[in-house]
Design goal:
The structure is a homotetramer of 308-residue chains. Chain A has three domains: 5-129 and 204-261, Gyrase A, domain 2, CATH 3.30.1360; 137-200; 268-305. In chain A, 44% of the residues lie in helices and 15% in strands. The first copy, chain A, is built from twelve helices and nine strands. In chain A, the strands form two sheets. A five-stranded antiparallel beta sheet of chain A has the order 2-3-4-8-5. Chain A has a two-stranded antiparallel sheet with strand order 6-7. In chain A, α9 (232-248) packs across α10 (250-261). The model of chain A has no long low-confidence stretch (mean pLDDT 94). Chains in contact: A-B, A-C, A-D, B-C, B-D, C-D. β9 of chain A pairs antiparallel with β9 (264-266) of chain C. Chains A, B, C, D: GO terms for molecular function: flavin adenine dinucleotide binding; NADPH binding; thymidylate synthase (FAD) activity; thymidylate synthase activity.
């Protein structure tokens, strides 16, 4: 259970507010507001604020004086058109803010997206929680033989147990010594500055932050991080966030699924091959003009759509 | 009057909504929401959405589970501390969205601030309004003799009238011909593409946009554009926006006034002079170690605070 | 001829320098350095500085201690892999700086790309050149009937002549009065501040700027602006810049052509249709699951690759 | 010694190149190019590329056709004027690229500056070096009593030795187990995916990256990180980079020292107190209108400049 009773009480008291506003309100997202969606063993994602909804996208695209919405079908058509043709600025008009708890090695990947605002819990100022990410056995996989930055087969249960044991033991020992460094002399410690002691923690220690981003940049983040090639430990955060988007901006989300997440891009060389295929030609890699790697990738892209 | 009856009706219908939300609500800003604050002769600024308030700044600074607020005096002290020490990220947690109508030459200065989201009315897609900025006689000033990018004395009333006459006549004639280019042949026009015809408009034509920015970046914008050295025509927009901030985030605004807008920065060389002055020394430019220009600037910086 | 003799002399003197450096040098781009590539009637693009070349991309991707290059074929394969899989950060390691002269209405489109550094010629500080963009008759097109933001058929030569006449006359008259406003009283003018007088200029007046951007963001700019749907007057600038890239980073450019400019993206719904087509099914719009608009777009995407 | 012989050889071979270019060349920075400036026990900073020099700042500010430089004294005056009045865009025209080796907890602070381009050594793709930051005894300080995010007195030599011992032992054990997790079964390991095993490393493990930034943003970084309140472990990197700037853009650097690093900013309330002091009034905190904290800060700001 990632939250203490005190934290739950804090969240509860905020959740009970109901104040009238003239701004766009998303009933779907209001229902999820402040609630922690659990991710990994001790992590979570929770929406703490938002601005705008699907109507804000059409309002901005039309630069209108009022709400700018027309019939639902016209609004949907406009949002899909904007998404399809990469008219991205109207999607920037929606904003969402999350509170996230996540392992530090995940935070290091995540922060590479530079278009968000971040306030991270400060280990210079505060003492870190005694909580570490320990993977479930079924996600402990061997190094992939074919992909230098991926995973292959799952470890045997003995191997997994041994790895989990090492991870637990090292994280705990490092944390114990972190505490010893921090503790005052009268408690057997060394009173070391927090900004120094923190360097003894392992990269699976949990941190947390407030993270705020506009919808356009969030879709870009999700497209990269929800991808099967993304590391599992960040993908599960992306999946949790996508659920919040489905509640918040369902039309934009549907367009995202169709024109981004489910879309397939063929290079100029691949398009030539595709044209020949559509003309009924049987093609082998050798006469395709593609490298072996590109050919394999193209076949993988087509596989889900072809007759078995 | 910058708004048509139809536009007013659109705004009214939006203003009458009152939907409950669990999010932070700013009563001061809700009262101003959607209302056009007039700026220049046909321009306006109006808030169309916002996210967060003063409490969101302290919530993010404390990375808290609930609202994160404590006693008002503590929150105020924290916000002032953050502003004073340039801990800027918590101010990024508030966001505001404006609908602005402004002359194109102002829009060109404004857009140089790259940290905002913008949707501008498209002159490729739509026909521009027949409205131009014509300055009041009292703001029509001569080129400054001492400042290459500033204004000097106000023109005489005859000069001002002549200039206003030229501005009006050229803007109207250009717009008339813009319309002629756009009109279909059967109406005596040429049916030219809108993306081409627009090039005939003058730079004082009004455009409009949705403009969304976080509070940190907005303070930076205001600090530069509310400055007496900023061009009058953008400064009046900055002043209108500052009023919306006073209603929205009064504590952060007060800190901004004290630590940014009203603050004075002395260079290392100026600090040496200041030290000597505080020690009772009488100093002339010649023995100050400052150039004449720096000396003049320093004296101007001190003048409002010294005995006459 | 866009450049004065004095400007040419300035450029010449800079072009004759030859100073040794340890940095990567691109012979192709050195040969173009400082030379103005003419664009439109009075505009130009010229490279004034650059940093890195194709080798800098592989060096960064490998985070290497030395140059990081291996065999040309391996480097090419790596660059193509990075481009194909949107590993964009290594492309940010190359930087290029242009000096551009362009009409103001083009500058207003251009500046919407926020990821560049810009220094524009200041009309608050200096007097604008007496130069305007007057389109060639063959680019003067009617408003498109099917695309709200595009062009249709070219105007007749009489219509074109009439439009050109209006554009010339209005631009010249506005500039004449701009000068009158600026001139001192003893020359029959009003001595108006430059920051005010400029508002009388038309949007086809030429401005100029220094514009600096990294290769990743430049590819993104080019992808959007070299597209047939981009306005002609900005597309010709994009085409001139692409030529400089071909001289500078030929391998990255080739990958850009294949994986971005020449690439085709199908939505999830389109992929289902494509799969059925590859399986030999004959499909009509009505049973495709696509809207008419999407169907038309898909047929246009496939047309260049299918047997007539 | 942070570099292997092989790495040194790679660097040497790059350093011996001397290719002519027409671009601005900084002799001072050429002499430092590629050389590793040691920082901390195993870290370094080395310049791997740059673009522009002091002359590029004035060239952009003047939007000139040629180099744009005039007399050295005029150029210096212009650069100082730009810095003093926060005309920041010309400083964006210079760019520099570093290769940095740094502990992960330092990298996490550093990356919060979002205006740079980064390529980090990938622990998903490669195996991390067996190197950790172990502080010197003289930088091991107790938690500050007065500053929640700072250091107080240095630990006793016994305390320091004990802390160093814990840091070494935990880092080594975690690295040993990291290797065990990575190693194949035939070598007694578990063949775990690199992207998983890395989570067992401690935060003082060294990583490395290519980091590229423009001069304006670098000055901003340095101003924050060279400050005495910045953590020592990042401050020493800032100091090493400042040395490279002094070799590269000496005039801009001098302006930075005077108008940024050595400058002092007084709030509006502090300015009132300063005015009274300049008028010869003796003031106590109680009648100053400042809080105790502000008063203390103001006295600290003035202390270096006042007679003892």
């Amino acid at each position: 259970m990632p939250l203490t009773a005190e934290q739950q009480a804090e969240i509860e008291s905020q959740s009970n507010l109901q104040i009238p506003t003239k701004r766009p309100v998303s009933p779907g997202l209001e229902a999820m507001l402040f609630k922690a969606l659990p991710v990994l063993d001790h992590g979570f994602v929770r929406v703490v604020d938002y601005m705008g909804d699907d109507s804000s996208i059409v309002q901005a695209a039309r630069v209108s004086y009022g709400a700018g919405t027309k019939k639902v079908s016209e609004d949907r058509g406009l949002i899909r058109y904007l998404m399809r043709h990469h008219h991205t600025t109207p999607f920037e008009m929606c904003e969402i803010k999350y509170h996230v708890r996540l392992p530090i090695f995940v935070a290091r990947q995540w922060i590479r997206h530079r278009t968000a605002s971040v306030n991270e819990y400060s280990a210079r100022y505060s003492i870190m929680d005694r909580e570490f990410y320990i993977p479930e056995p079924e996600v402990l996989a061997a190094q992939s033989k074919i992909n230098n930055q991926g995973r292959g087969d799952v470890l045997s249960s003995e191997q997994a147990a041994a790895v989990i044991n090492l991870l637990k033991q090292d994280a705990q020992q490092c944390y114990d010594n972190y505490e010893t460094m921090l503790n005052p002399a009268e408690e057997g410690g060394y009173g070391l500055a927090r900004e120094l002691a923190r360097m003894n923690l392992t990269l699976n220690s949990y941190s947390q932050w407030y993270w705020k981003i506009n919808l356009h940049n969030l879709f870009h983040f999700l497209q990269l991080r929800i991808d099967p090639h993304a590391q599992y430990e960040i993908r599960v955060y992306a999946e949790a966030m996508l659920k919040t988007l489905q509640a918040w901006v369902p039309i934009a989300c549907e367009a995202f699924e169709d024109y981004r997440r489910g879309a397939v891009t063929f290079s100029a060389s691949m398009m030539k091959v595709l044209g020949r295929m559509l003309n009924g030609e049987a093609i082998e890699q050798a006469d395709s003009g593609l490298t072996k790697r590109e050919w394999t990738e193209m076949m993988q892209m087509l596989a889900p759509y072809q007759q078995k």
